[in-house]
Amino acid sequence: MKRTFNYSLPALALLGLTLGSCQPTLEDTRPAADAGSLNFSSYVAVGNSLTSGYSDGGLYNEAQAASYPAILAQQFAKTAKGPAAFVQPSFSAAKKDGSGYVQLRVVNGTTTPVQPSAANSFLGEQVAYTNNPAFPSELEAYTGSQPDNLGVPGISVLSADKTASASGNATVDAQTRGAAAAYGVLNNFYQRILPAADRGTKDYVTYIGQKTPTFFTCWMGNNDVLTFATNGGVASATNPFSGMTDTTSFGRGYRNILSTISKNGTVAGVAANIPNVTTIPYFNTVTVAAVAASFKAANPASPGVFITTGTAAAPVVRLATSADLLTLTTQGYIAAVVAAGGTAPGSLPTSPLPNNYVLDATEAAAVVARTTQLNAIIAKTARQNKVALADMNTFFTTIAQQGIVTNAVNNTATFASGNLFSLDGVHPTPRGYAVVANEFIRVINSYYGSAVPTVAPNDYRGVLFP
């Protein structure tokens, strides 16, 4: 998923961003490298933005170089059975900033996240758009051989497979099948890695089937709930992939993906499941309590934060509770409306926060329930294809609850200052991706009896402060 994040100076005050002290880098104690029975010579990574290395709201060369598949390939090579090269669809050096990304900058004396754009040309971005950078825009085409990192930001199981839809609704099924086949002209990240002749006709399952891996990782399914969640539980009528994917479609699509890349269970690999997206900083940074406090500071009689729930046909306005989750972009949206002379959204029942800025308690519960259902399908399909399962749901939940210590440094899910999540509040930093890579390695070693060495996460950066 590619999302533009709008922040404001009041938002930074609310989030409490501060400059942190430098943290030490210590060496891990690493086992002797041994691939065991595994052959990593042709390692292929299948997945979405989390696989591509997407970070800070964009895909760019530095982030790609720290993707967890790139880190895995580096560690696999230490076993003497790793790939001679691991090909990623990087941008040219002149366009190294790719799709653009959020950066912390000092603006008018205050540290604030800034999204590169035409309006912020003073940042000197080397972005890779070939025309006006407004989605759907074309990115610089990748022209090398088919990459080994096949991560496509925004892709879901539903949008990956033109045969996957079987919801029972003929109109919806026809729409999603057709859109999956045409995904190369709907998603600019997928478009740029496809040969021109395949754009608009080759679905992702067919594309990954062109590879002949000796080992693979597959982390798919996040966007089958995440796209819906980050839009406040609101599906777009014009986007057939913006809702939560039904279990029938997901099951068929995921089975096709995993059987294709594992060559019907004959290739070793790891399938990862879907984290609980309600625990990520995107939903836990701008809180109802904090926004309510800002309203009360301006008006002591303020009763709290008014939100819109329900459906577009039957909207409901009510006061938010602590069980309702506000998006990371909420404070920036409020500040922008006020700066334009409007009433602060959420401060009055006649001016509530729009539905797409709130994942209300009912929607959050539905997202968690669907995630559980889809993860059951992932686990069963992994068993059927005789591959390991990386339980990223439990892993990320544990990090959200208690953080993770790497070489005596505590890392948490706190926005920006916690080291693990980037400035979009959804995707990891390079250090976060190193932590993810180590979890994949732990699962590989446990399941296959190998001894792939882990990486030292502190060698990788968190959020860059100016």
UniProtKB/TrEMBL annotation:
<dbReference type="InterPro" id="IPR036514">
    <property type="entry name" value="SGNH_hydro_sf"/>
</dbReference>
<dbReference type="Pfam" id="PF00657">
    <property type="entry name" value="Lipase_GDSL"/>
</dbReference>
<protein>
    <recommendedName>
        <fullName>G-D-S-L family lipolytic protein</fullName>
    </recommendedName>
</protein>
<dbReference type="InterPro" id="IPR001087">
    <property type="entry name" value="GDSL"/>
</dbReference>
